[in-house]
UniProtKB/TrEMBL annotation:
Name assigned to this protein: Alpha/beta hydrolase
Record key words, sorted: Hydrolase
Domain AB hydrolase-1, chain residue ranges per copy: 31-283
Pfam families assigned: Abhydrolase_1 (PF00561)
Gene3D superfamilies cross-referenced by the UniProt entry: alpha/beta hydrolase (3.40.50.1820)
InterPro entries listed in its UniProt record: AB_hydrolase_1, AB_hydrolase_fold
Gene Ontology MF terms: hydrolase activity
Amino acid sequence: MSSHPSTRHVVPTPDGRELEVLLGGDPDGVPLVYHHGTPQAAWPSPLLEDAAAQVGLRTVCFSRPGYGDSTPRSAWQPIADDPADTVTVLDAFGLGEFLTLGWSGGGPRALACAAVLGDRCLAAASGVGVAPHVGFPGDFLAGMGEENVVEFGAAFRGEEALRALLEEWHPGFAALTAENLVEGMGDLLPEPDKAVLTDAFAEEMAATFRHALSRGIEGWLHDDLAFVAPWGFEPAQIRRPVALWQGRLDRMVPFAHAEFLAASIPGARVHFTEEDGHLSLMTRMPEILTELRELGGV
């Protein structure tokens, strides 16, 4: 259990939706907007909240539309549209300038904030973040575990094919527990990730899957469709400080995605590790957040 537990809030949006928000970390700290992975949602995370409190950051995490208790959109939107919800949440709590970290499927959202909200976003970090499919050199799927190859393959075929697949997968993912998580994630986990999926961290990961999918697949569906479509901005347009974190053993988001982002984002600070996968890299959260605060100059 976190020594700096989060509090849950509901924030209305201008278009009539509701966003589920968790505030945690240091209540007097610099705002850190955390963009969760896919398919996940805003959920208490001692690993994140305690590390943030240690370096004087206040965590602001909201479930993207269709995940958890956040109202789904009627249709998916480009990733460049997502920062509007970030602004809505920050404004609701009277927060101005902020840092942002996105993990996995949240990585593109952190980069979008850096690109679109450059007057307010001080710095961004992308942890094991997905790269744009449009313009990606080589095989976008190379190095992914079997399940992700199938999932992205369905996304490439369009909404109908992807919806059918995710509806088939939904019952299994929505019922994951700490005990069956490693088995349930199949070919996606290298040994370093299996090693960290124990005890409280395993339960946290399973719980965020369950909560994310408690009302269906719309958030997951919209995430996947947005990944493979034009993002609405180019990484090369980002002018805010950016850090990239990636493990070479990752089987969810291959190492080549981080290499492409590193080559595309001007001045990106790169941290590539040889021994980490997709989840084990999260144990470096204190280091990641310390550097992010330094990049933001706060």
